[in-house]
Amino acid sequence: MMKKKLAITMGDPAGIGPEIILGALCSRDLEARMIPIVFGDLDLLRQRARKMKHLEIPPKFRVVTDISQIRGWAPGEIPVFNLSSLENVIPGVPSLKHAPTVHRYIETAAKYALQGSVAGVVTGPIHKGNLIEAGFDFPGHTEFFAQISGSVQVVMMMVAPTLKVALVTTHVPFSQIPNLLTVERVLRTILITDRALRSHFRLSNPRIAVAALNPHAGEGGKIGTEESMILDPAIRLAKAQHVLVSGPYSADTLFSFAAAGKYDAVVSMYHDQGLIPIKLLHFPEAVNVTLGLPFVRTSPDHGVAYDIAGSGTADPTSLKRAIEVALTMLENAA
Predict the structure, then answer these.
(1) 39/11 Cα distance (integer angstroms)
(2) 74: how many CB neighbours lie within 10 A of its CB?
(3) Residue 102 sits in a domain of what CATH number?
(4) Kind and range of the H or E element at 241?
(5) What is the pLDDT of residues 186-215, one digit of tens each?
């Protein structure tokens, strides 16, 4: 089997991104069935490595100038596509000066993925607020990759050992959610989720449950009409396209049934409705996946963790899982 090349973006240089990358790539947990390329800062990675005495395998850094020439990889090797030479980076102290560099890591990785030089992108944690404050229109990785790839129909899905959750809305204020819910948007999310479960997760007839927006699924319209006016029609239209979907179900009980195996995925109406059960059950094993892109994209399910950055104690488990999920998706789709 040909090894898949994965771009791994370093994320915020003041966060734990460099440390979890080193922890993941210097571990024997990852099979050598891939070729990782870190899009980041070589000197900064070396600095962090010197403080990480517990690495399972001593790191061996390699500068990458031509991605097409990389043929193999072994645990402990850190191939770096060097995109910056940052100075005076203080772990745990964010800086707006880092924002253009962080953006460059992500943008460059996306461009290489779009031209087929890498099969997928695994993104390190970033601070969205820093990017926005620095002038970048950046609500999140999902929205950025959709824009740069010209993908109109993308879905953010969280993948965990017992639960997969796709979101109809993502990084928006709570007050805007009801107005953003439409029959077309819910239907699109259901269809993209169904397609991905079949193509990338090898489920021949995936069972999808739709979470209600309102308590008790609206109580027949007594405490909300979104279920009858939006969710019910979207579910009917999806069923007409031979999708095995049901609901809307009251969200307070649905996730326990899904985690127990009754459903293969849940379509959730908004960010916290879907991510609270995922993180409660599977933090830090959960992985963020963007569906609908022309390439595979995953990321760990945590943030920059400024409070422990530079300490060498950051847990690389979620990044390892993000890499494993990306490889599984690529191999299933082959």
Answers:
(1) 9
(2) 10
(3) 3.40.718.10
(4) none
(5) 999 999 999 999 999 999 999 999 999 999
